[in-house]
Amino acid sequence: MLNEGERLRLGHFSDLHYSPSHLAEADRCFRFAVDDAIASACHVGVVSGDSTDHRLDAHTPALSALARQIHRLSAHMPVLLLQGTYSHEPPGTLDLFRLIGAHYPVYVADRIHQVALCAGQFVPSDGPLFSTAEIDVLLAQHGMPEVVFTCVPTVNKAVLAAAAGVANAATAVGDHLAHYLAAAGTINRQWRSWGVRTVGVSHGTVNGCQTEHGVPMAGFDHEFTIGALFEAECDAFMLGHIHRAQQWEREGRVVAYPGSIGRFHYGEIGEKGYLQWQVTPGHAAASLVATPARQTVCVDFDGPPDMVRLADIAMEAADKFVRIRWTVNEEHRQLVDRDAVLALFGKSAEVKIEARVLPAVRSRAEGISRAASLPEKLSRWGELTGVDTAPLVDRLTMLETLDAQSIADGVLAELREAGAEGHPRADVTPTDVHHAEPSPDPVALVASAMLADHSSMDWLTDDLFAGQPA
Ligand SMILES: [Mn+2]
């Protein structure tokens, strides 16, 4: 196939996510990538996990569409498929693909191990690493391999949790993988000294990488550190799982994600594509070949949508996938004309509207239920509504402790006193009160006196909760 030291060209595809809902996007992009890899005379094809988006029935068109592309690729080069995330690619999904190799084999890597590619044939290790004895047999039977892959498919955390304890499972994954990668490093260094190219293939999160939404992934429960990956001493390390293309380089060796083959969600930044690798012993380079992924436009309004701005955006959004989000208060929801927004984007491939309506939340006298006595409740209510409750508390005490006659007598005495001082009330005079006899309702008397006493009593007739946070 290739001479020692010559450049090996690999097409590295990842996160194809074939499924009924992603079929158009996945198949347009992967078909393009397969065409391009064949035209570029790639020697080997690698799919680093998540070929499917979820469990697919055998009759699903998405499954046969994926199989067709893998079959096409295998007519021109050996293909290595790596097991990805179980929820996307249930274990066993890839088994069928072993049977569809055309001119070259399709090899499925679903366990941690190494596999050598010798004249178009995959020769795997029995255990996680090639033993010295295995290497001797391999060299005797096949000669020098063109490339040796170190495969680290998705690790089952449940199995690991059972072994390491649930609390340690997350970090234990990283620790176990780091140990494995370091051990693989010893073997890979040996291969390199013999002029054999070494390639790592894995599906997982590198601590510190960036997601397709531009969010850095930082934490200790991620599968790898970039240092641990370079410890494997692979010339090239081909990763899947993160949907954004990115790469790291150290002394000529490279670790890279191609990202997802297409744009499966709104808000994903960066170009989509597949990676074309050139690998020689001790050196690698990866360049992204962009696929015709759909273009998305995301517009967010903190309030009702601005129709003038939307009209401008719509001019540039023909054939694009558009998502418009806005947030309005419940009382303003009628102000937004959804149909008018949709009409603006008539030429777009899709318009997805996500309107968020904020419900009106009324806080009714917060904390009042925690006040123990009626006067305390009254005071709390006064604090919340900005009413001076001191005179009310006095009168409440009167109502609670005195009988009706005593209250009436007290009020009348007070009024008489005020009249004697020559300050008759403009609105309530002693005469008025006397007119209410002979059967004065003491509570009415108190109430009218209170009204008379305070000019700022309009809260009694107003909406009690007006002016509260809505
Ligand atoms: Mn994925």
TrEMBL record:
InterPro entries: DNA_Repair-Maintenance_Comp, Metallo-depent_PP-like. Residues 420-438 have a biased composition (Basic and acidic residues). It comes from the Bacteria. Keywords: Plasmid. The keyword RNA-binding does not apply. Residues 420-439 are annotated as: Disordered. This is Metallophosphatase family protein. It comes from Cupriavidus necator. The lineage of its organism: Bacteria, Pseudomonadati, Pseudomonadota, Betaproteobacteria, Burkholderiales.
